[in-house]
Amino acid sequence: MVELNLTKGYWLFIALYLVVPQVSADLKYNMPVGVTEVSHAVHSLHMTIFWICVAIAVIVFGVMFWSIFHHRKSRGAKAAQFHENTLVEIIWTLIPLVILVAMAVPATATLIKMYDTSDADVDIQITGYQWKWHYKYVNDDIEFFSTLSTPADQIKNEAPKDTNYLLEVDQPLVLPVGKKVRFLVTSNDVIHSWWVPDLAVKRDAIPGFINEAWTKIERSGTYRGQCAELCGKDHGFMPIVVEAKSEQEYSAWVANKQAEKEAAKQAAAASATKEWSHDELMAEGEKVYARICAACHQPTGMGIPSVFPALKGSPVATGNVQEHINIVLHGRPGTAMQAFAQQLSTTELAAVITYERNAWDNNTGDTVLPQAIQAVLDKQ
Amino acid sequence: MDVASEHSTDHDAHHGPAKGFTRWVYTTNHKDIGTMYLWLAFAMFLIGGSMAMVIRAELFQPGLQLVQPGFFNQMTTMHGLIMVFGAVMPAFVGLANWLIPMMIGAPDMALPRMNNLSFWILPFAFGLLLLTLFMDGGGPNFGWTFYAPLSTQYAPPSVTFFIFSIHLMGLSSIMGAINVIATIINMRAPGMTLMKMPLFVWTWLITAFLLLAAMPVLAGVVTMMLMDINFGTSYFSAAGGGDPVLFQHLFWFFGHPEVYIMILPAFGIISHIVPAFSRKRLFGYSSMVYATASIAILSFMVWAHHMFTVGLPLAGELFFMYATMMIAVPTGVKVFNWISTMFRGSLTLETPMLFAIAFIVLFTIGGFSGLMLAISPADFQYQDTYFVVAHFHYVLVPGAIFSIIAAAYFWLPKWCGRMYDEKLGKIHFWWSFVGLNLTFFPMHFVGLAGMPRRIPDYALQFADFNMISSIGAFIFGTAQLFFLYIVVKCILTGEKAPACPWEGAEGLEWTLPSPAPYHSFTVPPKFED
């Protein structure tokens, strides 16, 4: 009975440990080789240490299973009397030590390379927010937020899921191929971690501190990653998308982005002076609210009790307008409420505040115009 | 040992257990307290386990089905806290209570009243912790590692209750550790020198020192959180001149010894069971002791390997990589010794031995992934992925928990005087073994493929292996209900057990009748090696 059980279990065990990795190799269930020199080095370290472990496992478990089969009482095995051997103990202390030293040498070399952030061609400042990433091209004066673009109905299983479900963003980080890019990673609120497996870059984004990392991408393409440090409710919903472009395409993208920025500035100026009607602001505000505010305050305006305050019927959204504007512009320090003065245009701010003051039966009838926001900003 | 011999003869035999409810509230008896610890641990194991079931049910398919992300985070946090502080640690203290006095030939623990207190703190601590789930804003949702500032500025209001509950657990652990040390140092039978102590006693002695050193650090770090949250300090807030990374250094200075607190007693248990069912003395006793001590010392020098991505300086990164790799050496020695014990023995495979063999194999697999994680450049890819989840579940589930189950089967006849049903025990083993590997082995692959941990929803390429993991988890979970049935059946209707039901078992505990008398050794036994 015992023996039968064990034999069956043994084959199951062998099957599990041999077949599963085979299947998974085809499905790419291993660490990606990646597209940088560092990611290749990391992958080869990973495979080396993996095969060392496999070799040790075969020897050690081999001896063990051999004695489990052959030194069985039911097979008439009589126990030997030995229970000590200093020489053997010394040998099996030294051999692992030698293997470890052999492993430490290439690991050290790779690590030193990873830490060399000098002589970068492009500097990108990455800032983690709850729950989106902000990218700033330090040398080119471009900056933007990058948020999840998977629609909510896919997450709620009300629509079929796209191929890149949860791994798609509205604005990817665009990087040049063949240039050394330095990342300056920090955070606005809690600790996040910026990770793109194909680049073998993972760096924690820590509020108040700046971490450095770098990459030099070899091939153009789209590389996806995710936030790797638990950062609150929507930690699973702040992906990273890197688009690597050839040098010419990258320069074109930068030029285009700067032109866009100029155009947006003019449009913002135009819209700031435009006479907005209440209904136009409400329509615009609803969009901004869904994109920016609903993650915490919820689409219903009800918030989450004791975590994210409700806006429906709240003293802020139904009380003094100036107070409401101040909180949206400058946030509430020490809470998850961010300062949106730099994140949104005056029109967007005016629209969303108008929306919050009138949606969900708040019905204050107030209309906040972009000019009012501009006036507050000018005062400071 | 003199204490035992002077006092035990005259006033001992005439009082047995009190009757009724007060027996358990007022008891100072190491067996009663051990029993309560073990049942509490088992209850917590089922509660923490049901939280794991919620997690695996949500992760069965991509998309949000059962729970919202906020509640999902509470489940992962509470699952970790309950399993670490509520299941594994109290189970080991329960085993220490039951076994240490019997193994060293003492009548009881050295500090029986403190023993009572250290147990009775725990139900309140865990009651408090579980109550936070029903408070406004929900329970702790910042992961069992509760990194600041997520756990301070951004925490739900219940965090203060969480801090108090951690303080209580720490108090209980420290008192338990003091008791173990006092008992082992003072109450051994005449002739039992330190280097003749049973290995479970040795590993627990070392564990107790780890607890004494580590738990105050945890208490300190949660107190600093309390100050940041309620009294306006800025230990962990850069805006006030503090440093969020300081939290991680302090937490892991506690946290890494903590993981050895959860595995060293397991090493001790396996070092009893393997020789017993191999009918051969443990190979390399003294090297086992030295290896355990080396692991304990190294455990205080490797904490920052949990923080390879926080931006340590290169020199720090290298130091912690080398120090972590060193741990493989003494751990390897232990595995080699167990296998040499089996080699040319006369083996039978009763349930405790099956669990012990599975422990050796699967714990070693967890050790291998640990070695991979130690390689700092590769860790940049592994950190905070399911590869890490696979790693620590391999060392904790078939490691710590299998050793506890093995110990339960092995010593149950001594505890209740009855044998468990061997056939059911074997079914429980294979049921657990299959479930556990189905659950945790695929996690290696999804982790390497890039799935971060602590996410309630995932990209489509991770779907198939997540489904396998979830099925495995349900299999493993139900197997533990079956374990409950086996234990209850054994206590109520098991066959009567002889003093030593195992042919190859050695140690003073087997010289006592089964079930063991209320006061273990009223006269110090003669200890002969």
How is this structure best described in words?
Chain A: It holds the Pfam family Cytochrome_CBB3. Chain A: It is a multi-pass membrane protein. Chain A: Its cofactor is Cu cation. Chain A: It catalyses: 4 Fe(II)-[cytochrome c] + O2 + 8 H(+)(in) = 4 Fe(III)-[cytochrome c] + 2 H2O + 4 H(+)(out). Chain A: Subunits I and II form the functional core of the enzyme complex. Electrons originating in cytochrome c are transferred via heme a and Cu(A) to the binuclear center formed by heme a3 and Cu(B). Chain A is of the alpha+beta class and 380 residues long. Chain A has 3 domains: 31-114, Helix Hairpins, CATH 1.10.287; 122-263, Cupredoxins -  blue copper proteins (Immunoglobulin-like); 274-379, Cytochrome c-like domain (Cytochrome Bc1 Complex, Chain D, domain 2). Chain A has helices at residues 2-26, 37-70, 86-114, 152-155, 247-273, 278-297, 315-318, 321-330, 346-358, 370-379; strands at 122-129, 132-137, 142-146, 173-176, 181-187, 192-196, 201-205, 211-215, 221-227, 239-245. A 5-stranded mixed sheet of chain A has the order 3-2-1-5-8. In chain A, strands 4-10-9-6-7 form a 5-stranded mixed sheet. Chain A is elongated, with a radius of gyration of 29 Å. The relative contact order of chain A is 0.09. Chain B has 529 residues and is mainly alpha-helical. Chain B has 17 helices and no strands. The radius of gyration of chain B is 23 Å and the shape is globular.
Which pair has the most extensive contact? A-B, 112 and 107 residues
User: Briefly, what CATH class of the largest domain in chain A?
Assistant: Mainly Beta
Biggest sheet of chain A, strands in spatial order? 3-2-1-5-8
| Nearest-integer average pLDDT of chain A | 88
**Beta-strand residue fraction of chain A:** 15-25%
What would you give as the CATH superfamily of the largest domain in chain A?
Cupredoxins -  blue copper proteins
Q: What number of structural domains do the residues of chain B give?
A: 1
Tell me the helix content of chain A: 40-55%
CATH topology (level 3) name of chain B: Cytochrome C Oxidase, Chain A
Give the rounded overall mean pLDDT of chain B: 94
Element pattern of chain B in H and E:
HHHHHHHHHHHHHHHHH
* CATH fold node name of the largest domain in chain A: Immunoglobulin-like
- The best one-word shape of chain A is elongated
